[in-house]
Design brief:
The complex is a heterodimer of chains A (about 290) and B (about 325). Chain A is about 55% helix and about 5% strand. Chain A has eleven helices and three strands; from the N terminus they run ααβααββααααααα. Chain A has helices at about 5-25, 50-60, 85-110, 110-115, 160-185, 190-195, 210-215, 225-240, 240-250, 250-270, 270-285, and strands at about 65, 120-125, 150. Chain A has a three-stranded parallel beta sheet with strand order 1-2-3. Chain B has two domains: about 30-165, Beta Barrel (Lipocalin), CATH 2.40.128; about 170-320, Lipocalin (Beta Barrel). The longest helix of chain B has 21 residues, at about 30-50. The chains are: A mainly alpha (about 290), B alpha+beta (about 325). At the A-B interface, helix 1 and helix 3 of A face helix 1, helix 2, strand 4, strand 5 and helix 3 of B.
Chain lengths: ~290, ~325
């Protein structure tokens, strides 16, 4: 090795040694921090009020967590709505969610409730909007195309009377039907029955009576197959079996779809006609006007 | 020369290795500390203000020169807030404190006058979530979390909660407890004259107005379906008529609130003459969207309105003709 090579070798070795020593001297954390800088999900809660206690009881009893207060982590910030008034949220939780929805289902059709319940239920004061609080027609189903979460808007305007709750529970089953539709699919055969006869946006100019002769339980069901499915469930919760049979007798396609939807639910563990009768009885016994 | 190069190389290497020291900016602990301090200060200030806080909310309508006051008392144990405003007296709702981007987030978490104002629109309240920007003695600075629309940037108007030191107007406003709607029928169905004085010195031509009760059908609709009158039970819907000439009158929707008269522009309802263009005409005429009531006399009502600093900028009387 000549002297130039030796010098370069020694210089290189020296540089490598110093680099290793310096890099090794950098202070290292013994472990990675196990916390994010800010816990965005933490909410500072005060003393639980009566409604908080009721929602806790419902969660322990049925496994459904009711939300009536919101921050941007509960519903994403591209959704616009207003929380319900506290008194309305309290009435809704007790008389709609507990007394009319969860309790009767758990007594009459526990398997259906256990298998098909959402684990979250959102109580919202206004309708749900998607561009701003004042934009367009409000939607409820927008919250309900999710398997784990059911949400109902317009609670501030709900009449907490027997008649008001009896009608509203039909809408709740309608929204829940969208979840089951998303989850299992209403089926290829279902969509073929009324294919080509849906009103689309012209449903608004049809009456419910006209819709029934055209093969839909009500005009909105004629909008599209998914609403056809959901309004069929809604109708079976709203009308007695005898009335349903009279309606479906008006149109063979409606009769076919009725059989499909009825069986769809029966396979999941609930007889919608029996549920209709149960709900009539339950709502009649509510301590409301 | 080569030794010099080697030394330069070593010096650069030395600097590079030294630079691997952690940057303080990357230390999340500072965010926690800053946000935590803001939150502690916020809760301490909320808790310590015996008489609560005053928030002035400006309209986005540039014709309106006044700002609407809200007096809020926070109970940090129960997470309750009691609000006194034109929408009602000491109405309770709930609030929650959570986290936003490096700062606390105050949510008026159940329906309240704030969510009601947000729902109608047209004011600086473009959300019911507020980022807490700064907390200094006697002032809490906050910002609406959203500007109101999906495609707008994050963050609305900067608003200030000012500690309530019971300024004179709070006493003037709250001493009058007569409910005009139920206890002073003499003011309904008759021509009246509004006479206003502006602190700015602007002239006001006396205006002929009238208060009319809504029909039974309309009243039922407002109480069941219109946000302001559904959510604020102390508010009564009326027709607040204005006659530019004896033969040309309009009949916009007006509200009798807590010791107050107000009108709001709501674009979500029709007809426009009742909900939007009509109230906008009144707001332009009076340069305010509300009057606080100082006193109800036998044949007249003394009113006033404030700017965003709490200064009385409109003083007036509405008298039976």
């Amino acid at each position: 090795m000549n002297s130039i090579m030796k010098t370069r070798y020694l210089t290189g070795l020296l540089v490598a040694c110093i680099a290793v020593a310096l890099i090794a001297s950098c202070k290292k954390d013994s472990k990675l921090p196990d916390q994010t800088p800010i816990d965005y999900t933490a909410i500072k809660t005060g003393v639980p009020n009566a409604l908080d206690k009721l929602t806790d009881t419902l969660f322990k009893t049925y496994g459904v967590r009711v939300f009536y207060e919101f921050n941007p982590r509960v519903i994403d910030p591209t959704t616009f709505y207003v929380p319900a008034q506290f008194d309305k949220a309290q009435l809704y939780t007790k008389y709609v969610i507990e007394k009319t929805w969860l309790e009767p289902l758990s007594k009459s059709f526990p398997k259906f409730l256990n298998d098909q319940k959402p684990i979250e239920f959102l109580i919202v004061g206004t309708g749900i909007h998607f561009n701003s609080i004042n934009s367009g027609t409000a939607a409820g189903a927008g919250l309900n195309a999710q398997y784990y979460r059911l949400g109902m808007g317009g609670v501030d305007n709900l009449a907490f009377t027997k008649a008001g709750i009896r009608e509203h529970i039909c809408i709740l089953y309608h929204e829940h039907a969208h979840q089951l539709d998303q989850k299992y699919g209403r089926g290829y055969a279902y969509d073929r029955v009324s294919q080509g006869t849906y009103y689309q946006l012209n449903y608004a100019s049809r009456t419910d009576a006209q819709a029934q002769t055209d093969g839909f339980f009500r005009a909105y069901g004629g909008y599209a197959p998914e609403e056809d499915f959901a309004t069929s469930v809604e109708a079976m919760i709203r009308y007695s079996k005898a009335d349903i049979l009279k309606i479906v007798a008006k149109n063979a396609k409606l009769a076919t779809k009725y059989q499909m939807v009825y069986k769809f639910y029966l396979d999941k563990g609930i007889d919608l006609h029996q549920m209709h009768d149960v709900l009539d009885d339950v709502v009649n016994r509510l301590p409301l006007q | 020369m080569k030794k010099l190069y080697n030394l330069i190389f070593l010096a650069i290497l030395f600097c590079m290795v030294l630079s691997c020291k952690k940057e303080a900016l990357l230390d999340g602990g500072q965010s926690i500390e800053r946000s935590g301090k803001l939150e502690r200060d916020l809760k301490a200030q909320m808790h310590d203000a015996k008489d609560g806080w005053i928030l002035f909310v400006s309209s986005l309508n540039t014709d309106v020169k006044t700002a609407t006051p809200f007096i809020m008392k926070f109970d940090t144990t129960q997470n309750k807030v009691s609000m006194t405003s034109i929408y009602g007296n000491a109405v309770e709702s709930y609030f929650k404190i959570s986290a936003s981007t490096g700062m606390p987030l105050l949510s008026f978490s159940t329906g309240s006058a704030i969510s009601s104002v947000y729902e109608i629109g047209g004011t600086e309240i473009t959300d019911y979530f507020f980022k807490i920007v700064r907390v200094v003695p006697d002032t809490i600075v906050m910002q609406s979390y959203r500007q109101g629309g999906t495609y707008q940037k994050e963050g609305g108007a900067i608003l200030k909660l000012i500690r309530n030191t019971k300024p004179a107007w709070t006493r003037d406003w709250q001493q009058e407890t007569t409910k005009i709607y139920t206890q002073a029928p003499q003011f309904f169905g008759f021509y009246m004259t509004a006479n206003l004085r502006y602190a700015s010195g602007e002239a006001f031509t006396p205006a002929t107005i009238a208060f009319l009760k809504q029909s039974a059908g309309n009243y039922a609709f407002f109480k069941a379906s219109y946000p302001t009158t559904v959510n604020n039970k102390q508010v009564e819907p009326i027709t607040w008529a204005y006659y530019a000439t004896p033969s040309t009158g309009i009949g916009p929707l007006g509200m009798l609130g807590y010791n107050s008269l107000f009108c709001e522009v709501s674009n979500g309802y029709s007809p426009a003459s009742l909900f939007s263009t009509g109230p906008a005409t009144l707001q332009k005429l009076f340069k305010t969207n509300y009057f606080l009531i100082r006193k109800v006399n036998a044949t007249s009502i003394d009113v006033f309105a404030l700017d965003k600093d709490g200064k009385e900028i409109i003083t007036g009387t509405i008298s039976l003709n």
